[in-house]
Design brief:
This is Proline dehydrogenase. Keywords: FAD, Flavoprotein, Oxidoreductase, Proline metabolism. The chain has helices spanning about 1-10, 60, 65-80, 85, 90-110, 115, 125-135, 150-165, 165-170, 205-225, 240-265, 280-290, 295-300, 305-310, and strands at about 20-25, 140. By secondary structure, the chain is mainly α. Among the domains are: about 1-25 and about 50-145, no CATH class; about 280-310, no CATH class. Strands 1-2 form a two-stranded antiparallel sheet. Helix 1 crosses helix 5 (about 90-110).
Length: about 300
């Protein structure tokens, strides 16, 4: 919580950053097969295996850190745990920026808080640190730090607007949705206590497209810094939450319907892949429930329809 209160105040004064955390990287790169020929997939140099790191051994775990970096880490930790500093961090940052000027202020931040938490400002600036850590057998998990600075009230308003339709907002369509798929104001601001993931608030489709471009650049960056890297994408940042809620509700209702049909045919409790429904019995059940007429149901199962929709 202390870090979440300090970092947002730094964002207006510093460019976007890529925070770094470390994890053991002990996997060896696969060697080229015996039948590989030069110029046909084996031309790429095989990187030698990195040494395994025992992170239970403090001396070995911190072997890649310089003395001044450890001193800075201790200083930042103590400052972030100081209640008086946390209570006035915005005022202190404002005063420091006025006294030092933008250039010296940025340098001070990079020597302390920014330098401790951030690997670099872009793909190029993070390379030296990644190479240094890799030489000591320490891998990297890159995190693209981008998050809007919204007040709890603004976050709640944005969330409720993006998760509800006009009919739901005026109260006429709420009863048609399952309770678990209705937006609740109490969960409007989901950032509190969440440090393991970014929280996105829907603005418009253009913003979603912007997030997509950012994700693509992150994928490219991950490919440049590692031969076997991976990237975690938060798909909820790429679409309207209302659609995701409704889509989840539709999938859940179809699952319930499928289980109900399976139970009527004596196949309750079986896994979905092991359940084989009789088409004739299914058509009869659907017609009795008034979902569709027999003629419409028969069209669902024609060869032409199955060939188009799967």
């Amino acid at each position: 919580m202390a870090l979440r209160r300090v970092l947002p105040a730094l964002r207006p004064y510093i460019p976007r950053f890529a925070p770094l955390s470390t994890a053991p990287a002990v996997r060896e790169q696969p060697a080229a097969g015996p039948g590989a020929l030069p110029g046909r997939g084996s031309a790429k140099a095989v990187r030698p295996p990195v040494p395994a790191v025992d992170f239970g051994n403090a001396q070995e775990a911190y072997r890649s850190r310089r003395t001044w970096e450890l001193a800075r880490s201790l200083l930042v930790l103590r400052l972030c745990a100081w209640p008086a500093l946390l209570a006035r961090h915005e005022q202190l940052l404002y005063v420091a920026r006025k006294l030092l000027g933008q250039r010296l202020f940025n340098k001070l931040m990079k020597m302390t808080f920014y330098g401790h938490f951030v690997a670099g400002e872009d793909q190029e600036s993070i390379q030296p640190l990644l190479r240094h850590n890799r030489a000591f057998g320490v891998g990297a998990i890159l995190d693209y730090g981008v998050e809007e600075d919204l007040s709890p009230e603004e976050a709640e308003h944005k969330e409720m607007e993006s998760c509800t339709s006009a009919a739901e907002r005026d109260g006429s369509g709420t009863n048609k949705r399952d309770k678990q798929y209705q937006a609740h104001r109490a969960f409007g601001d989901r950032r509190s206590g969440v440090i393991s993931a970014r929280t996105y608030f829907y603005a418009n489709e253009a913003k979603c497209d912007s997030h997509m471009e950012t994700f693509l650049r992150c994928i490219e960056a991950s490919g440049r810094v590692s031969d076997d890297g991976f990237i975690a994408i938060k798909l909820t940042a790429l679409g309207r939450p209302q659609f995701l809620l409704q889509f989840s509700e539709v999938l859940t209702k179809w699952r319930r319907f499928f289980h109900q049909m399976a139970a009527e045919q004596g196949q309750a409790g079986l896994a979905a892949m092991d359940t084989k429904l009789e088409v004739a019995a299914l058509q009869e059940s659907v017609a009795k429930m008034g979902i569709a007429s027999r003629a419409e149901i028969e069209d669902w199962f024609t060869a032409e329809t199955l060939g188009v929709s799967g």
